[in-house]
Amino acid sequence: MASKSEQVFSDSQGEETIYRRVPEEKSREAEALREKELGNDAYQKNRDFKTAIKHYEKAIELDPNNIASRLNRAAAYHAQKEFDKCIEDCKTSIEVGRENNADLKQIAKAFRFTGRCYEDQKDYKEALKYYKLSQSECETEEIVKLIKEAGKQLEEVEKELKQSLVEKEKGNGFFKQGNFQQAIEHYGEAIKRNPKDAKVFSNRAAAYFKLEKYQEALDDSDKCIELDPTFVKGYLRKGASLKCLKRMSEAAEAYNKAKELDPTNEEAKAEFDKCIAETGDPQVDPEEIERILNEPKIQQIIKEMKAEPKSLLKHLQDPVIAGKMQTLLENGRITIP
Question: How far apart are CA 108 and CA 115, in angstroms?
Answer without folding.
Answer: 11
